[in-house]
Design brief:
alpha+beta, about 625 residues, ten-stranded mixed β-sheet
């Protein structure tokens, strides 16, 4: 299959012949309303794919449209920032456009077989097959459909869909069809589901204008806007895509593939972004979805890690608003941040630590540009220090283990959240990084606590060194022998934890245990008895016990480049190559995947992951020396 990416006046094409990779191919689009459209190429391979809309009042997601199912074999797919086009045999083609304010337009040409419009209305995660009621009616040239989910005693929720039928040739089907979703089945998630086939498009060529929402009026208004202003809306999206294409220059030349993958990753950061969200249920402004086709929530940890990508892209106003939203969300009693950026969500310390790290990065970036005073007033700097120092005190009071002289957390508080860990390495190093940020802020704000934080930094550094470094390896636990990819994350967060010569020795040993044949970094040493070399799917057994995470791979390359670029040039090059290949030629086209098996490189987990795109941008800037 041929794949073509269109970026402004450039295009890049390649042919993917591997059936192993083709079966995972998909596309993803979003709009400022928080609606997301993800589709397989020939057909959907995950039951999470389709068009999902966001209910802003509650920040909940609801799937409406499953897919436009075609019989024609797809030979080529063309990807733009705002549409996807399929080209098949006998000059068949179709194109999907997601409206910037809701709804969609589907056009098709030279179709010699029926195209089915399939619906699968439900609230995110609600795969209960019972109590699903679809009904249709026509009004003023629009075919409306209402979907009501019913329980034994009440109606749970109602969704609306509609399409302009005034010039459309179709056959109503209104039948239940059983589908099998290959990737869902492969992940050991139930792969079968009955969906509702609304109609078959019977014309040779045509245009389908759809609306979807939470009221008939909303659907009507979307259809009317798309019908009357299609060209203007597409022009608007085109201008947005131009604005989000980075105009950066590098001291070292980028290969064509790295250049395209970098531009795609930069644009895709805005695909994850929910900039227009003003829901009272949300506590964060400018939050980003964590991934597609699932993870369509704003996870604080992921969002804050990925905010570095927006810093790299010079989006300081956007980042500032995001960081201050998180500052204001810090719990005054615990110092923690919610895991999800919605009211009532459970909290953890690592999001707070990432907040401190990204504030430090934000200030450093502005300082490098000579723009600190333009973006951050003295009073705002004082507010940052006050809130972070207060959060630090609360976290120490509630979580410090005086016997271990370490921070004790709950299982799930580390990013390796499928493992039962109470004193994980990454949390201790994040705490150390937090202290370093407080030192910087106390100096900027002329506070007397600087020496106290310096003393704490020294003692915590010594404790981490003596507890986690054993036999030349940096271990993930105070006890046991677990060499993990957190070794590289530790350097990224606290490069002064060891001398550079010590770090090189640690990296050398870690690479012997963690490096994969294709260039990735496994989460756990391949010599550990619990290591799993192949992705295990929904059960998450391999998740942090062998899978290779693309965001961590990028972080590892950043760390190696910073430590000794010449020595680790080969490893850095293989990570850049594998991450670039993943973005361009695997999974959701143009996006970085969540994970791959350590054994062989594949797009696995969620096929479009926020922090994979963000850390790729940071990596390219680091390695190719962006001109500032």
């Amino acid at each position: 299959m041929k794949v073509t990416y269109m970026i402004e006046d450039k295009q890049y094409s390649f042919t993917q012949e591997s059936q192993t990779h083709l079966k995972y191919f998909s596309t993803a689009l979003s709009n400022s309303q928080g609606d997301v459209a993800t589709f397989g190429i020939q057909k959907n391979n995950s039951k999470f794919q389709g068009v999902s809309i966001s209910k802003k009042e509650t920040s909940e997601m609801f799937k409406i449209l499953d897919e436009f199912l075609i019989s024609n074999k797809v030979k080529e797919v063309v990807i733009t920032p705002f549409s996807t086009k399929r080209i098949g045999e006998s000059e068949f083609s179709d194109e999907f456009f997601l409206g910037p304010t809701g709804g969609c337009i589907y056009t098709f040409e030279n179709s010699q077989q029926e195209i089915y419009l399939d619906l699968d209305c439900h609230k995110y995660g609600d795969f209960d097959e019972w109590g699903r009621d679809y009904s249709t009616f026509e009004e003023n040239g629009i075919l409306y459909l209402t979907y009501t989910k019913k329980s034994e005693t009440k109606e749970d929720y109602t969704l609306y869909f509609g399409l302009d039928i005034s010039k459309l040739s179709y056959k109503l089907k209104k039948e239940w069809i059983q589908k099998e979703y290959a990737y869902s089945k492969e992940r050991e998630y139930s792969g079968d589901r009955y969906i509702y086939r609304l109609l078959a498009l019977s014309e040779y060529s045509g245009k389908v204008i759809c609306g979807m929402g939470f009221s008939q009026k909303e659907v009507h208004d979307q259809i009317e806007l798309l019908r009357d202003h299609e060209d203007e809306l597409k022009g608007f999206d085109l201008e947005i895509s131009k604005e989000t294409t980075p105009k950066t220059f590098f001291e070292m030349p980028l290969s064509e593939e790295v250049d395209i993958a970098y531009k795609l990753s930069s644009q895709r950061m805005y695909t994850f972004l929910n900039k227009d969200f003003n829901s009272p249920n949300l506590i964060i402004k400018n939050g980003c979805y964590a991934g597609f086709p699932w993870f369509t929530q704003v996870w604080s940890r992921d969002d804050l890690i990925a905010s570095r990508g927006f810093i790299e892209l010079g989006e300081h106003g956007l980042v500032k608003e995001k960081l201050f939203s998180y500052l204001n969300a810090l719990d005054e009693a615990t110092g923690l941040l919610p895991i999800l950026s919605t009211k009532g969500a459970f909290s953890s310390p690592d999001a707070c630590f990432w907040l401190a790290k990204r504030i430090d990065d934000f200030i450093y970036s502005l300082g490098e540009r000579g723009e600190l005073s333009q973006h951050l007033s003295k009073s705002q700097s004082a507010t940052i220090y006050k809130k972070l120092s207060s959060a630090f005190s609360r976290i120490i009071t509630n979580n410090w283990d005086p016997k271990m002289e370490l921070l004790k957390v709950k299982p799930g508080d580390s990013w390796m959240d499928t493992i039962e860990l109470y004193y994980p390495l990454d949390i201790q190093v994040q705490l150390l990084s937090f202290v370093s940020t407080l030192i910087d802020l106390s100096v900027i704000n002329h506070k007397e606590e600087t020496q106290r934080y310096l003393d704490l930094e020294y003692s915590l550094k010594e404790k981490i060194r003596s507890t986690y470094l054993r036999d030349g390896n940096l271990h993930n636990n105070p006890e046991g022998n677990e060499v993990t990819s957190n070794t590289f994350l530790a350097y990224y967060l606290a490069p002064n934890l060891f001398y550079r010569s010590e770090w090189e020795s640690i990296f050398d040993k870690a690479l012997r245990e963690l490096k994969t044949s294709w260039g990735g970094i496994s989460t756990l040493s391949k010599y550990h008895p619990e290591f799993i070399g192949e992705y295990s799917g929904e059960n998450n057994v391999s998740y942090h016990r062998g899978d290779s995470w693309f965001w961590i791979n990028n972080i590892a390359a950043i760390a190696m480049h910073d430590l000794n670029e010449k020595k680790y040039r080969k490893e850095i090059g293989k990570i850049i190559s594998s991450s670039t290949t993943d973005i361009l030629k695997m999974g959701t086209l143009g996006f970085g995947s969540e994970v791959s098996s350590s054994k062989n490189q594949l797009a696995q987990g969620a096929h479009a992951q926020l922090w994979s795109s963000s850390t790729y941008i940071e990596l390219v800037h680091k390695v190719y020396n962006i001109q500032k």
